[in-house]
Amino acid sequence: MPSEQHIRSAGCVQDTKAHMKCRTRETRAGRNGPPRHATQRETTARRRFVRDLRTKAVRWFGGSFYACGYEGLPKALDCRGEPYVLSDVLKHDFLAGTGVYEAVTSNARAPRRLVCKIARRRPFCLIPLGWLGRLVTHNEVCNLRRCEGIDGVPKVLDRISPHIYGYAYIEGACLSEDVDLPLDFFEQLLGVLERIHARRLVHFDLHKPGNILVGHDGRPHIIDFQLSTYIPDWLLVSGRLSSRLRRSLQAYDLYHLYKHKRTFLPGRLTEAERQLAQHRGVLLRMHRAIANPYKRVRRACLRYLHIRGILKDTEDVRASAETDPTRWTGQPHAEPPNIKSVGHPRPAQGAHQEPSRHTPAT
């Protein structure tokens, strides 16, 4: 019969062996890593986290190309104390978004429809640009108020916020659409432009046909004073030098007006106007020398962003480079339907009816 000491020794040996086996299993587990099912769960969770982070980063980066982000224009706002709701988006690009708002209540003193322009307020890739939106809105509102009393220039109804202002809405179409122009349309447009120039202003953005509108009565309207510039007589100390600079820049507006006349009503173009439409001054050549390389780089970047799906496709009436992927990807797309008579609403695809091009009231 074994003694008590032998029994205790045997128990210690068994405990030591069990402890060593446990340590061996722990060492092997540490050397080989966690079990396979645990590794797969961690890998799946890590991939999901990276995918979600990448999606959020792409959405954040793509949204920074729009003035109001992916969320779009405000769905509702107040103008002169009257509530308005968003009815249609006319344009949404890098610097600003333009939308049509309809009144919620029927007030005879308030316009039923309103066109609001919302300038950029959000940063672009962590670069704050709210100051730029305030500056652009302030410049545009001030220059529009300098043109008060000119038929064919939008009248500011309210400065809703530092980034938003509104003006009235009437039916019409832009010059780039297929509309029946009166024979004296460009003569009327020249009269509007001359009155704008008489207020010491330069529009600088008449090369876009979309900034020239045809009202339901066939009268011309000039919109989008975002790049317009006021050149006072004291700008260059001498009034003569300031006047000379102003006339040189205003010739840039006249060049584009006659170029549009050559395109849309070539039979009404006189020989003197034809020469002006072909003459490119020094300032215009300098502008194109700078702007054309910038446009090529910008189009290449936008083409890549559209192909990668970072910029989204929208159904705006006036598509911009940020909202029209077919412009840079070369994919076929349906042309917008034309309207033959000014003032009739533009038919849209499907059952939905889009409103026609807006024309600001004078």
Tell me briefly what this model is:
This protein is α+β, with helices and mostly antiparallel strands. The chain has a domain at 60-168: 2-Layer Sandwich (Phosphorylase Kinase, domain 1), CATH 3.30.200.20.
Question: What keyword list fits this structure?
Answer:
alpha+beta, six-stranded antiparallel beta sheet, Phosphorylase Kinase, domain 1, 362 residues, 8 helices, 12 strands, disordered C terminus, four-stranded antiparallel beta sheet
Enumerate the spans where pLDDT stays under 50 for 5 or more consecutive residues.
328-362
Q: Describe the strand arrangement of the main beta sheet, using strand numbers.
A: 1-2-3-4-6-5
What general form does the structure show?
globular
Order of helices and strands: HHEEEEHEEEHEEEEHHHHE
- Distance, first to last CA: 120 Å
Strand proportion: 15-25%
Fold-level CATH name of one domain: Phosphorylase Kinase, domain 1
CATH-defined architecture of one domain: 2-Layer Sandwich
Alpha-beta content class: alpha+beta
Number of strands: 12
Major β-sheet annotation: 6 strands, antiparallel
**CATH class type of one domain:** Alpha Beta
Over the alpha carbons, how many angstroms does the gyration radius reach? 32 Å
Roughly what is the average pLDDT, rounded to an integer?
A: 79
Within CATH, the superfamily of one domain carries the name Phosphorylase Kinase, domain 1
Count of alpha and pi helical runs: 8
Helix content: 40-55%
